[in-house]
Amino acid sequence: MASATRKARSAQLTRRTPRLVAVEALARDAGVHPEIVLRFVQLGLLEPRGGTRVAPLFRAQDAFVVARAMRLRRDLGVNYAGAVLASRKVYDDSCAMPMCSVSPMELTASKPVSGTSR
User: Which domains does the chain have, with CATH numbers?
Assistant: First the structure.
């Protein structure tokens, strides 16, 4: 009985603890060279969560952050610093956006907003 309780508690702790990965694994998951990951660390997009200065460790989900920044870099044609800024802006706007009933197509429509002049 005690063994089952220990196993259940161990499983709970494992689920709560984020999985940390090395630079190489993060780069492979994001589809970039490890030097790109280190460049994003220098620019402040990523923060190591463990390891040492020589061998930093990152959260496994940071691969999504790197991939998003690379897509923004490719799609907007900006440099790495611009990709970091755009990535932060996209993330901040998506987290701060309240739920509403307006569709994205309505937001991009070219009709004037009531009460404003063109």
Answer: 7-108 (1.10.1660.10)
